[in-house]
Design a protein that fits this description.
The structure is a single chain. By secondary structure, the protein is α+β, with helices and mostly antiparallel strands. Among the domains are: 182 residues, Immunoglobulins (Immunoglobulin-like, Sandwich), CATH 2.60.40; 44 residues, no CATH class; 205 residues, ATPase, nucleotide binding domain (Nucleotidyltransferase, domain 5), CATH 3.30.420. It is built from 23 helices and 29 strands. A seven-stranded mixed beta sheet has the order 4-5-6-3-9-15-12. Strands 26-25-24-27-29-28 form a six-stranded mixed beta sheet, with helices on both faces. It is globular, with a radius of gyration of 28 Å. The two termini are 26 Å apart.
Length: 761
Amino acid sequence: MKNPPLHRYATRPGLYFTDDGGADVVVRSETADQVWLCVLEPIDEPSAFFQDAIRLFEDPNISFIQQIHEFPVCTRIIEHLYLRETLFRMTGPNYGLWYVHLPKAWDGMRYGYRVDGAWDPKHGVRFNPYKFLLDPYGKGIDGSMELTPAAFSYECDVVDRKVIGSAYGAMSTVDSLGHMPVSVAIDDRDTHKHEGDPQHPHVPWRKTVIYEMHVKGFTANAPWLPESLRGTYAGLAHPTTLAYLQGLGITSIELLPIMAKQDELFLQEHSRKNYWGYSTLSYFAPEPSYATKAAQEKGAAAVRQEVIDMVRALHEAGFEVIMDVVYNHTCEGGVEGPTVCWRGLDDLAYYRHQKSNTGRLEDTTGCGNTLDFTNTHVVTFAIDSLRYWAKRIGMDGSVLKHTPEGKYTVDINIDVPDHNFGIKLAVDALVNPDYGVIKSMSEIDAVGHRVVHGGERFSDSVLVTPDVLEGIAACAELAPLHNPPNLNGVKACMALMPQVPQVVVFDTAFHQTMPEKAYLYGLPYELYVKYGVRRYGFHGTSHKYVAQEAARMMGGEISDYRIITCHLGNGSSVAAVKYGKSIDTSMGYTPLDGLVMGTRSGEIDPAIIPFLIVKENMDAEQIDEYLNRRSGVLGISGLSSDFRDLESAAHRGDERSQLAIDVFAYRVKKYIGAYTAAMGGVDAIVFTAGLGENSSSMREKICEGLEYLGTGIDPVKNKARGKNQEINVDGAKVKIFAIPTNEELVIARDTVNICRRIIKL
């Protein structure tokens, strides 16, 4: 029997933005009686939860805690802080997790938790609902702790910066809100965030030279930096700083902790600061004080983006980026310390306690507390944090994720120095006796590979031969960031499995059926002859798959229909598929052409380039950076390359975010019209990839005005996400589909078909 899939609430905590404009929120507390999600809003703005929340008033006869237990959603005004706090009672515990669906959520939303339960500090139980708690998975931080009685769960006073009171005394009823940092929500759903980023350098150990540095300290007095960039992430990313580091001959930058930090109680009592950062406040949020003043003023998302830009710049300069991390203890210190997060959520589950005296913490670190890594969920928490910094921020590091059918996902965290090691690691996972899916490598009959660029040499998937390897290498000039690592992967598999057939599937191959009139540019023909300057197109494997799926859903073959496929994500393209063949596509010689994208300009007037060279004094490299990394919807909005950020901001009235959405939708619509004309009509329009599959609002906006084609979107069907779905109104002449792409399946099918004549599959 196949194991049923686990509900998300039973696997991972965190705040997850949803397509309905809200968010699913999950937090762990195994021993609490009740947990609330608390959202903060300024009182001089209308509340997003006005219709849902019951207003609380100060009543001397009923405590704040009693009141919040009465209502599923309640709100109160805190006049001296100019804040409105709305509390959502969470459901749980379910496998130790509490959850709630927030009806409205937005980028920059300030939030936290309150937790109620027993107060029994002598037995390690310290729940206090008067303390406003950070989200352990929060991606942004706002504010810092003040040394006041409000910061502590137990009754105490602060005299001459000394905390006076017993950690085993009565529970404090002083509200900590306004005296402690709060979490800031950042919409981070874009799985394609780092598409187009430079390849992570992989320096052999024998050549590695590591430079350990403190971001703030290293750049604080750098004479080459403007004052505004000294002591900042942006200062480390400055070209002159990078040139200086290159001149030292180093290969790898090890950053002393850059996770958000909090001064320990001992230091605060002595008016000192934790310079080095070994006192973690948040394992997902970067330290705000290392960001530029401009980024700090804009908020947590801007601070985070400055870190991402720093890592990208270091990679572009050829440096590995290593993080120094601290997972053995937190900034909360011993039992006498403040209640910021973990202590208030579940002291017993997060921290190690003395066996002979559960009221005391084990202090193997010398820092007052020790995270309990005998608890599986603490291990998961640390791994989730590491994965986030590697995958979402871009820090170097490698995670092999292996999900056997019907079994739990296995994450293998290990440094992967080269392709040979990585392929061996993957194969070992496949044959592992505990979580593998095959008994031995002898069960592997063939291997399929995705290769980005095949130029004009390859119009279809092919069996690997020496000539094919040479051809992939020759096309590296057309895709310098992709083809070389693709080729290394093929060679690694050949070395590990020398008798096993290898097949390569080219991302450009599907578009090789384009006629000359479609792929030639209005340039001297000699450029095409000498250098192969022409339209190639990309995302071919995806376009092929979803076109085939659309045909199947219409009851025929791909050769029966005229289909427009829209692969929409951070990188986007549209293709015209006429009776099974691609006759035109929006991307060109490179993926820069065509649609406006996340950070790419798409098609522009070529005269703009010499204009920028003159007016902005740009060279070729700067132009390339400007058009590929600083343009698109990011450039238009000035906010983000993530359409979820833009939709959220537009919903709140941000005009430039709305403009970026409108420009993108208009361009897609224009291509649909053009390709309808090119094919002499259209039978189906398909939306796929991250944005196309998941954004009902974007699909609706694109299709608005296409009724003349004999189609229209059904608003109920259009709510589809993550599954094949016909979303047009009943009886429509032209079908509209949302279809999740599956490039891996195309690769597998092509590999089987090519190898059938060699081996029995």
